[in-house]
# Entry
Amino acid sequence: MKAVQDFEGGPATPVSAGFIASLTLAYVGAFIAFVPLLSLLVPLQAQALSPADKVGLLSLVTLWGAVVASGANMVVGWASDRTRHRLGRRRPWIFAGLAGVLLAYALIALAASPVLLLAGVMLFQLTFNMMFAPLTAVLADRVPDRQKGRVAAFLGLGAPMGAASGVLITAPLFAGAAERMTVLGLLVVACLTPFLLTCREPPAAAVRERRPWALPRLSADFGFAWISRFCLQIAASIVNAYMLFYLADHAGYADQFPGSTVESGLARLIALSTVLVVVSGFLGGLASDRFNQRKGFILLAAGLMAAGLAVFALWPTWPGPLVGYSLYGVGFGLYTTVDAALVAQVLPSRRDTARDLGIMNLTNTLPAVLAPLLALVALGPDRQDWPQLMGVVAVTALLGGLAVLGVRRVR
# Structure
């Protein structure tokens, strides 16, 4: 695969503190939009609508949602690269996606059958990726290489803050699905609005013409980065989608903590590990810039994530889940920050930033397709073999760390 460069060099002008702050808040809003929804609220809806086969319904919903997300992210990314609008090429799509996300929340909250829940999640994945695909391109569009690790460190706050928002969403004050979805929507709007109102995109640079539907020509570095993220995102997909059921069915959280609900336990567990996630991600991003080193940090992150998954497999009684989630969280925070900087540096073409990030985004959506299938197979006929599932995913995470060693252009 041959690298293609349509622009002469990358962005050179340093970005301001105000720009970093508004982009960071937008990222926080994006993660708030989907993390508590897919890890807490959709599993609770699946359990309410199909108590006899909640894992089966959740797997079906996750599978088809991921299929929609895969196509939407690439198509919208390609379209936003070519958009010429007075608001810029990214912001019109983010505006439209945000409106669609709010509509999807309403449909999910009011879902009275598995079919309506499936429709709501598919609509959410379509519109969320309409918002998220252009947003993720901004790092590569605007931030020079020497600032990418630093900015990615701030953007890395999105994942833990999105996870921590689950504590608010599951507070006793918001007991119903409608109330929880309303709070979620208000938080997302509040976080995205400053970026949408203040960001001013520079005019699109002139590029040489080529066939609009030409197949992308990608580099070997891009391929190794893709494989690495794909494997690590399989681990993330399993943890995001199935931890609620792991705590309920394997760890026996309700038996260990009478009077506490499993969803509130998971929310507290995530919140407790958030500090570690933030610290590891932030320091990792700064250190990767300081030492001009990305791959070593990603390899370390993969090892920590695998260690956490191994604890889930071998130590389900308390405080095992706390130890496992802490190890996993530190590794995940470090991985997301440094990986974002690495991927932004190996993109083949600045002309097609969002399209190429759409291809990279398959490493998020395809694992979400495979995770339900992997869970159904690894959990066995009775869907209770959690040690086997967590063990397989731990090995997958290690393979993801090793794959990044194939990248040559970035240290």
